[in-house]
Amino acid sequence: MAVIDDKLRDLEQRVAKIMQMGGEEAVARQHAASKLTARERVAILFDVVDGRSTFVELMIHAHHTSESPMMAGRDTPADGCSAVTCCADGRPVAVIAYDFTVMAGSIGQNTEMKGHRLRELALDR
User: Fold this and answer.
1) Phi, psi values for residue 92, rounded to 5°
2) Which residues are bridge partners to 85 per DSSP?
3) How many CB atoms lie within 10 A of CB 51?
4) Low-confidence ranges of the chain (pLDDT < 70)
5) Confidence at residue 25, expressed as pLDDT on a 0 to 100 scale
6) Using an 8 Å Cβ cutoff, are 79 and 111 in contact?
7) Hey, how many other C-beta atoms are within 10 angstroms of the C-beta on 117?
8) Alpha helices of 1-108 — where are they, by DSSP H?
9) What's 80's DSSP letter?
10) pLDDT of residue 70
């Protein structure tokens, strides 16, 4: 069980780091410019049912796959995009929010794949 506990702890730490988006300084710059972060913008939309959020973020562990030397060692939490399913006004919705705290909201290959997959899910459901 210790191995599983270690893996769960590692997963929790990785998710916590991803949830910090581009880091405290980048989030502070967004707020200083009177702007919300991607997740804050999405949170405004979703419903709360029985005290629980309907917000589910998909593919949170995505990161850039660029082989460009300029991207070597660069961290791109969630590849700068929140792909979310939630309920808004009781209706299921799919939302893509670009995270301007990560590389100014630029779109990478995995961001495009996340958007494509979210559109597939929305059409299917």
Assistant:
1) -70, 135
2) 56, 94
3) 5
4) 48-49, 63-67, 71, 104-105
5) 92
6) yes
7) 14
8) 2-19, 24-32, 38-45
9) G
10) 72
Give me the torsion for CA of 10, 104, 47, 55, rounded to 10°.
Answer: -30
Are the beta carbons of 93 and 45 closer than 8 angstroms? yes
Q: Which residues contact 67 (CB under 8 A, 6 or more apart)?
A: none
Q: In sequence order, which residues have a C-beta less than 8 Å from that of residue 121 and are 6 or more positions away?
A: 58, 85, 94
Q: Which two tokens stand for residue 14?
A: 């990785």
Rg of the chain over all Cα atoms, to the nearest angstrom: 16
pLDDT of residue 8: 92
pLDDT attached to residue 9? 92
Q: What is the largest CA-CA distance in the chain?
A: 48
Residues pairing with 87 in the sheet: 92
3-state secondary structure of 97: strand
- Please tell me the distance from the alpha carbon of residue 53 to that of residue 48, in angstroms, as a whole number: 5
